[in-house]
Amino acid sequence: MAATIQDVIMLFGDSTTQGGWEPGLDGFATRLSHVYARKLDILNRGLSGYNTDWAKPVFERCLAAKRDQLNAPKIRILTIWFGANDACIKPSPQHVPLDRFVTNLKEFIDMVQDEASPYYSPATRIVLISPPPVNTHQRLADLQSRDPPVALDRDFRTTRSYADAVKGVAHAKNVAFVDIWTPLWEGAGMRESDLTKYLNDGLHLNAAGYEVLYEALINVIGERYPEVHFDNLPSTFPPWVDIANLKG
């Protein structure tokens, strides 16, 4: 039994990533843990409320920890999922201008892919995920129900521009891209008010939304990085029947 540790899938993002293990949602982190069991471990590094500016030093710390830890498992798949908070309407402190958002995403990728980077990791496959569409009707109702009420902080078209920007970065950097916007939008009949089918508060995915995301992510991994699809990875540890046979 040569291997004593498993490599990992690191999920890096905002609350949509953090919620991937929320009880009752059957989120994408939960599903990944099931299909990659005994093959790759899942590290959920979701940061609720964070934008790409605030996430950058955390990302660097995550990579540094992997670099500095003796015999650290490799990050085989890295998902990066931001934009929902960066796209907030000014004067929200979460807002990051679109051009800087693009720059930040490219810096995340360069930390991993640039050979001159101290965190260079040729074994890591990167997947960018677009932010989902926002249902401003549902979001406003949620914010207005709070005490005290809060003004609307998202805009449908603005969030769409950040989703398009993620696709552009993926193309420019030649990394995989998961378009979660399109299937959710089309599944809602291209009616913002009907996005309640996939969103629980106008912003965060419900169980149906996470199911769409998971299926899209697995399809992209299979198409772009088939060598790390769960069907193509061996188990880290031998099956029990092999151990039983070895013991005679």
Automatic annotation (TrEMBL):
Record field: transmembrane: none
Chain ranges of the SGNH hydrolase-type esterase domain: 11-212
Pfam name, any one: Lipase_GDSL_2
InterPro entries for this protein: Iah1-like, SGNH_hydro, SGNH_hydro_sf
Domain of life (superkingdom): Eukaryota
PANTHER family in the cross-refs: ISOAMYL ACETATE-HYDROLYZING ESTERASE 1 (PTHR14209), ISOAMYL ACETATE-HYDROLYZING ESTERASE 1 HOMOLOG (PTHR14209:SF19)
The protein, known as: GDSL Lipase/Acylhydrolase
Protein species of origin: Collybia nuda
Upper taxonomic lineage: Eukaryota, Fungi, Dikarya, Basidiomycota, Agaricomycotina
